[in-house]
Amino acid sequence: MNGLSTILIVVGLFLAGGIISFVKQDMPRSLVVLLSIGAGMCLVAGVMRLGVWS
After folding, report:
1. Which of 22, 42, 43, 48 has the smallest C-beta neighbourhood within 10 Å, fewest atoms?
2. What are phi and psi of 28, to 5 degrees?
3. pTM for the model
């Protein structure tokens, strides 16, 4: 596990926590969707950088 994949996974988890917070605060749905897309992209990029399956 290198540094970039770790940073991407941590940022993705941070953004996922932001999604939960934004939903509890009744923020606009478009903002929550945008944040969830960013969190998903960070998590997927971090996991893809691991390359465990190859």
Report:
1. 48
2. -60, 145
3. 0.84
pLDDT given at position 9: 94
First to last CA, the chain: 14
Three-state SS for the chain is CCHHHHHHHHHHHHHHHHHHHHHHCCCCHHHHHHHHHHHHHHHHHHHHHHCCCC
User: Rg (Cα) of the chain, in Å, rounded?
Assistant: 13
Q: Helix 29-50 and helix 3-24: axis angle, to 10°?
A: 160
